[in-house]
């Protein structure tokens, strides 16, 4: 998996344990799939997953880790990766933009990325097979980048890993599940919520003003391969200025969240949100309680690596201090009007609070 702000790696055990206790959850919609770490874990557990994200790089990750099935793509992907790995480097847009004008990658690796990506584009492959190759290239580039994990800036001095050679590896593509084919879509979250019906809907929206497109603009360009105009020291795509999510705007985030929650079509809603976001816990619980009984788990965790390092200006000079180094992530579970529970959520999930190291902080809520 690529380095990713907001990754749910540490929450997965709690999430999977809770989903296992919810009755008849065979299909899950993931409305903001990101790296597809959650979708991949749910598919690995045997559930059918419908992943969605409006960014192209996230859509490629979902096609690879959720929609693709190992028995259908692995053999051909391995053959093609060996072929692509033998290509000599050839400088192009990627090298010029991200290795010469900026210093995200060593030019030797940028040249190989250019050559490999051009070759993938020329093959006109099946979309799922192409996604496996794109994810392999994305992850190979991530292993030799020179950032702290986001692409708002690059390190003043080369990271040790940046000197390594680009290496293509077959991603961990999972076998098919028995409940039906998994899917990957590239829709606005509200449109996806209105379109797809499932046993459970997982909602992990952006928390604050930090745009995932801006933080991972290089991966967006790598997948789209559209050679966009760019701006600033970070060489961001020009559309980072215009492709804005309501969830990244304080004045619009609460209404955007409310609309998604009200539109979601499932017996259970599962929401992940942390305490440095625009919405406070009371606001979230109030919105969720309109759909049914609410139960909350909380988990303490370290903030992302950039927060550990500090605040720097574009010249690489430290200019500020981070107020805190740990956050609290909340998992909210809602039994909607569609659920047919024979006992409260608090009874189904209550002992997970102590087992997970989190807390239940408050009794479950019920629709007035």
3D structure, described in words:
The chain has 15 helices and 11 strands. It is of the alpha/beta class. It has 2 domains: 211 residues, Vaccinia Virus protein VP39 (Rossmann fold, 3-Layer(aba) Sandwich), CATH 3.40.50.150; 139 residues, no CATH class. Strands 3-2-1-4-7-11-8 form a 7-stranded mixed beta sheet, sandwiched between helices. Strands 5-6 form a two-stranded antiparallel ribbon.
Structural class: alpha/beta
Largest sheet: 7 strands, mixed
Q: What is the third-level CATH name, the topology of the largest domain?
A: Rossmann fold
Instruction: Determine the CATH superfamily of the largest domain.
Output: Vaccinia Virus protein VP39
Helix-strand layout with pairing:
Blueprint: H1 12-21, E1 27-30, H2 37-44, E2 48-52, H3 56-67, H4 70-85, H5 93-100, H6 107-123, H7 127-142, E3 183-185, H8 189-195, E4 197-203, H9 212-215, H10 217-224, E5 230-231, E6 236-237, H11 250-263, E7 265-274, H12 281-288, E8 292-302, H13 305-309, E9 311-312, E10 318-320, E11 326-336, H14 345-349, H15 352-356
Parallel strand pairs: 1-2, 1-4, 2-3, 4-7
Antiparallel strand pairs: 5-6, 7-11, 8-11, 9-10
């Amino acid at each position: 998996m690529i380095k990713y702000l907001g990754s749910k790696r540490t929450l997965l055990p709690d999430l999977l344990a809770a989903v296992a206790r919810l009755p008849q959850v065979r299909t899950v919609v993931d409305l903001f799939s990101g790296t597809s770490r959650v979708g991949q874990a749910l598919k690995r557990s045997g559930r059918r997953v419908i992943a969605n994200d409006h960014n192209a790089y996230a859509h490629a990750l979902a096609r690879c880790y959720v929609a693709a099935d190992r028995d259908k793509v692995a053999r051909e992907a391995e053959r093609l990766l060996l072929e692509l790995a033998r290509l000599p480097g050839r400088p192009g847009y990627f090298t010029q933009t991200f290795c010469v004008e900026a210093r995200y990658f060593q030019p030797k690796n940028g040249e190989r990325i250019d050559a490999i990506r051009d070759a993938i584009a020329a093959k006109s492959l099946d979309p799922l097979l192409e996604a496996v190759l794109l994810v392999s290239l994305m992850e190979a580039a991530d292993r030799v980048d020179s950032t702290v994990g986001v692409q708002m800036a690059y390190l003043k001095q080369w990271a040790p890993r940046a000197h390594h050679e680009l290496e293509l590896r077959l991603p961990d593509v999972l076998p098919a599940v028995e409940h039906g084919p998994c899917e990957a879509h590239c829709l606005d979250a509200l449109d996806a919520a209105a379109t797809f019906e499932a046993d459970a809907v997982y909602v992990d929206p952006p928390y604050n003003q930090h745009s995932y497109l801006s933080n991972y603009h290089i991966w967006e360009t790598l997948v789209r391969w559209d050679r966009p105009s760019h701006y600033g020291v970070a060489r961001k795509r020009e559309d980072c200025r215009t492709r804005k999510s309501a969830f990244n705007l304080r004045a619009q985030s609460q209404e955007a969240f409310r609309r998604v929650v009200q539109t979601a079509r499932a017996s259970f809603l599962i929401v992940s949100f942390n305490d440095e976001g625009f919405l406070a816990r009371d606001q979230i619980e109030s919105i969720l309680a309109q759909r049914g009984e609410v139960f909350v788990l909380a988990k303490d965790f370290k903030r992302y690596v950039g927060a550990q390092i500090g605040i720097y200006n574009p010249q690489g000079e430290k200019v500020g201090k981070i107020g805190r180094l740990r956050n609290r992530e909340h998992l909210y579970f809602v039994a909607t009007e569609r659920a047919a529970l024979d006992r409260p959520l608090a009874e189904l999930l209550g002992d997970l609070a102590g087992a997970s190291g989190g807390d239940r902080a408050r009794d479950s809520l019920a629709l007035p």
